[in-house]
Give the backbone structure.
Amino acid sequence: MSEAFTVDTTNDNDSADDTRQTDVLIIGAGLAGLSTALSLPQSLKVTVLSKAALDVCSSHYAQGGIAASLDKNDSVTDHIADTLVAGAGLCEADHTASILSAGQQAIQWLCDQGVPFTQIPQQDNSQKSLNGLHISDLHLTKEGGHGCRRVAHADDATGRYIMDALFTKAYAADNITILPYHEALDLLTSPFNESGSLDDDTQYCQGALVFDHINQRQRIFYSRAVVLASGGLGQLFKRASAPNVCVGDGVMMAWQAGCRLANLEFIQFHPTGLALADSSFLISEALRGEGGHLYCPQTGARFMLDIDARAELAPRDIVARAIAEQIHTNGLGYVHLDVSHLPATFLQAHFPQIDQTLLALGIDMTTEPIPVAPTAHYSCGGVVTSANGLTDVAGLYAAGEVAYTGLHGANRLASNSLLECVVVGRNIATDLPRYLREITASNTALHEDKAAQQTFTIWATPILKNTQPVILPTSTSLIFDSSVYNAADDSSHSDTDVTKITTALKQLMTTNMGITRHAESLEQALIQVQKWQHWLKHATFSQSDACDPNNATAADRLAHLQLARQLQLATLIIQSAYQRIESRGGHYRQDYPDMACQPKVSVITPLSISWPCRPYENHTFEAVNQDKTQPTKRIPTAMSAL
């Protein structure tokens, strides 16, 4: 995408007012965010924030496609059944049925936006040019866990084609403003009614604190509603398919604002990431769907035949663990994915991006095998959200990988995630105007003293069934005792900076919170994370860091805040995995290899409830902006209370 269309070059550093007003603030410019923006009424002013350039998002890099029951021999019932099997008992049945039932409408909507899906050969092109692309025109492929072909795709770069089409529509919409390089740091929340006539405990979201990377300054965006579509947390791991902006900050902002989190331990590893150096390139599951085979490089054995009746098309958690076991045995760091038995013309036509990428690296997949290994790919947990995108905080919606709707359960079925982005995003666009109307009417009634005793019913928080609480460590129950901590015992303390800790955290999460886990390794990981937290809290800013409040740049202080959040998120994930004493879906415990009889959803209560003292002490948003002589007035939030 041309940079000329992605960067807002307006420089208003001289402006005394760093606030903006908008009807709807969407945090994240991926598929979930743009699906919401384009589906909202054009009468609403919509602002979309992107942390970096617009193509730096997971949606852009999605290869395989988007799943829905489109074939005449398929059905929504079968799609639901396959999803429930892959989810290993933890899918929320009602939400799953609701989202998947909207599959045909969602893909037709994408067709109407101009997405150039790959079509069935030898169709009547003249008719299509008159009536537009229809779902009956689409070529469907098959991926792991699906009982039939139901994945619509655009060659092997589906995400890029989808995002290009949606950005074209968004830029043409007069009511939508897109701001790249604007990073949301904190959600603005306040009591629904400051006079106390309604429920005093009810919070509602009315904007966000934002760091403008272009002008290196704080900005405040006030809005009537907020949509969180910030993506996942894959970059907590060393090998990840997600771009570098995906560090789970949306999850943490929502938790701070008062939202529950669920099932953070279920991290899906894509079985076939390209195993060359530190490559983040994925080898699409569709290659296995079209007949690709996995082999041990040493013995030549097609090992999946001995593991699952579905062989290479078993759900991702099964295939990823099998590959990891092979790698542990062979010591090579990879296995082989071979498609050389398929026609070269077919591979080049259907997988042009993969073909060209591999050729540039010296691999001809039409004649030789591809080295692959699992890579962190998707977070099945996240912010507790209804199928319509409502969270625990009124006025705050969530969609995409940041959200937990219950669709993915313990293991996401391939290509269901893009569908969820579109369906839930469009559901939000339907519900949000209702919320704005009702909150306006409620405020009017309150002003006229007609609602002094009414309850806050215009926002229905999501309901979870069969839950188990995640008990977080407190100051009196830490595994790591900071009172006896000796900095000299930690060789990393004297010369460790934020970048080094961030890199070490990725390795720690990959080693100790990877495809297989064990109580001992999880305890070790938690101790190390707590040491880093202790160091970060008490660190004196070195000259290289330039972190003295009087000398540090905003970027330096922002980096410390970001690391503090990543360390806290790592604690939440590790603790969730530690307390799930079973193996299910993407969570495999070597010390508890069996599945529990009763599936339960792990739930982390909001920050204000679950943590007696703030874990971000000394790393507040205000610290990021100490160089501002007259801070803009803001609404108190979890971050401002530190």
About this structure: The first strand starts at residue 19 and ends at 27.
